[in-house]
Each structure stands twice: as structure tokens, then as C-alpha cells.
Write a structure and sequence with these properties.
4% helix; 2 helices; mainly beta; Porin; globular; nine-stranded mixed sheet
Length: 335
């Protein structure tokens, strides 16, 4: 199933919502009387395919990456505090959820969406989105969504063409203000660690998908996309993240230096993490001093999908590259 790309007036969760799909048990949320709103009690997201009309679902990200950014003269001047906390997407569907038709691209009608980002100090950022999307063009499976009434917020996200159990994206919240928040996450239905449809007990698999990130360098911010691969060895409980064909989202200019070469990590439960990111730029120029990390989770039955966040930094000059990624699993093989 796939969501039609669109630019929403601050509709970040709308599109993501569709990617996430799902509606817990479908229909109205339990215990709700009267029309559903974004403030009603949601059910848990289970899959994109399970989404129904007139339902409210919420999908969470175990961890998000978020920077506080100072703005001078309308441009990001410096990225400040980096935080690793959770976020959530709440999705309210409208009256019309068309049946899935083979070869067709269903369009979902949403009554509203909400993105909530947790921040340090027990504070949160919450944004509600309007219901009517405005199409702005096609960037593959990634799209920009848009604007709030008071300030401008943006979200770039995956369209969900190959993802049924998760979605991923990056955001800018508070454009036009002196400080904005920029971050990324993957949201979805976590793979159980035991019982039916649990994490694979062994074998090797590869998750192919996409990556999107902000590159902040020399006072300029550019959005890049890339082809991502997460290799998983369920026998050794290890992963390896790579990304190639990095190019600007708008214009398509190549940026091979931002390609991610094999960056190892470990699996724990239904999550994974790595404490280093290897950029091609550092391979080509060993004197460059980059550090970084990544993390994420497996989603859907039998770890059908995987996604998460990444961040790379050069603290000497405040260069940053950060965002999110996600992909669907190929066949699990047993070497």
C-alpha cells in the first residue's frame, strides 16, 4: 500500500500516518463516544494495511534525534544541544478509506495528525496538522509536508511504497523563530521479542530502503537522500549500516562524501545501535575528524522492516549530518 505524496499545511504526521497506516483495532478508538478528534484516546498502530476510516491511531519511535538550532537572519547559524528522546505520530483518519486495488495507489483521507517530540527537561513539542494536502511534486518516495498557521514547520518523509509497518522522516519545527528544532525518527509497530512473529532466531538478512538527512555545513543546510542498506546477522546479533548514491533532494546534485560506508552495530532485543558512522569523506581524507552514532528498531512480524536515526558531527567546526532511514527485509538466509 502506498500513500499519495503531498505537502500539507503542517501535515507532517498526515503523510507519515498513512505510511504507518494502521489502526490498532480499526474503527473508533475504544471508549470514545461522539466524533473522534486528535485529543481522543488512540489505539496502537499495527500496520499500514490495517488502517480504517474514522479511526485514531498512534505510532511511537523508541528514540528520535533532535537538535536545537539558532537562527540568524533567517538562516540556521549554529546547531546546539543534541537530544535522544522519543516521539510519536497520532493519526486521525477521515470517512473514506478506499479498498486496496491491485496496481492502484490508494489515497487516504485524514481528519488530522499530530507530531509530538519529547525534549530534555520534561518538555515536548506538539504540532497539529490540517486536513487538506497540497501536492508539490515527487521526490521518489520522499516528500515534504508543511506549514502550521502560526509558524512554518516542515517534514520530509518516506511515502511508504514498500513499508507496511513503519515510516520515517525528518522535521524542522519553528521556522521563522529565533530557535528551531530539527530532527528525525522512524515510527511503527515494533517486532515482538517472543512468541508469534517474533525476532528471527538466526540467519542473515538485508534491509533495502532510503535515508534522508540534513547536512549543516558552513552556515548552510541542505537536505540529502540516499539509498540505504542495513545488513543484519541474527546469529551474531550484529548490524551494519551503509548508504550510497547520496544526492540533494532538490536538484539531485551528488554528494559522494556523505555516503556512509560500512558502520557496524549490535542487535539487542528488537532494537539495534552503532556507536560510529563512517563517512566516505573521512575515508578519502583521513585527517577529517568525524564522530557519530545510529540506532533504531525492527518493525512488523518477523522483523519485516527496520528503520531508525543517524547523526554525524565534527565538533571542531559544528558540521552536522543527521536524519533517519528505513527499509524492507529481503529473504532471511542461513549461511
Amino acid at each position: 500500500m502506498r500513500l499519495k505524496t503531498a505537502l500539507l499545511p503542517l501535515t507532517m504526521p498526515m503523510l507519515l500516518a498513512a505510511c504507518l497506516g494502521g489502526g490498532g483495532s480499526g474503527g473508533s478508538s475504544s471508549g470514545q463516544s461522539g466524533p473522534l478528534t486528535l485529543n481522543s484516546t488512540p489505539t496502537d498502530f499495527t500496520s499500514f494495511e490495517a488502517i480504517t476510516a474514522n479511526s485514531l491511531v498512534e505510532a511511537s519511535a523508541p528514540t528520535s534525534v533532535n537538535y536545537a538550532a539558532d537562527v540568524v537572519g533567517g538562516n540556521v547559524d549554529r546547531l546546539g544541544e543534541l537530544s535522544f528522546l522519543g516521539s510519536a505520530l497520532r493519526i486521525l483518519t477521515g470517512d473514506e478509506i478506499p479498498p486496496e486495488v491491485e496496481g492502484d495507489d490508494p489515497e487516504f483521507e485524514f481528519g488530522g495528525l499530530r507530531l509530538t517530540v519529547n525534549l530534555p527537561g520534561d518538555t515536548t513539542i506538539a504540532r497539529d496538522f490540517t486536513e487538506e494536502p497540497t501536492e508539490v511534486g515527487d521526490y521518489g518516495r520522499l516528500e515534504i509536508v508543511g506549514e502550521s498557521e502560526a509558524v512554518t514547520d516542515r517534514l520530509y518523509l518516506n511515502e511508504g511504497e514498500d513499508l507496511d509497518y513503519m515510516a520515517f522522516g525528518v522535521w524542522e519545527i519553528g521556522l521563522g523563530e529565533e530557535t528551531i528544532d530539527m530532527g528525525g525518527a522512524a515510527w511503527g509497530a515494533l517486532t515482538p521479542t517472543a512468541g508469534d512473529n517474533a525476532m528471527p532466531a538466526g540467519g542473515v538478512a538485508s534491509y533495502s530502503g532510503e535515508l534522508i538527512g540534513y547536512n549543516f555545513q558552513g552556515g548552510a543546510t541542505t537536505v540529502y537522500i540516499a539509498d540505504s542498506t542495513l545488513g543484519a546477522n541474527f546469529d551474531a546479533d550484529t548490524v551494519s549500516l551503509t548508504a550510497s548514491n547520496t544526492r540533494a533532494l532538490i536538484g539531485g546534485a551528488g554528494a559522494a562524501g556523505l555516503d556512509i560506508v560500512a558502520s557496524p552495530g549490535t542487535i539487542s532485543g528488537n532494537g539495534f545501535s552503532g556507536n560510529a558512522i563512517n563517512l566516505q569523506a573521512a575515508v578519502d581524507n583521513p585527517g577529517l575528524d568525524f564522530s557519530g552514532s545510529y540506532g533504531g528498531a525492527f518493525y512488523g512480524p518477523d522483523a519485516a522492516e527496520a528503520g531508525g536515526w543517524f547523526e554525524v558531527r565534527n565538533d571542531g567546526n559544528n558540521d552536522r549530518y543527521f536524519g533517519s532511514f528505513g527499509g524492507a527485509r529481503g529473504e532471511v538466509v542461513f549461511p
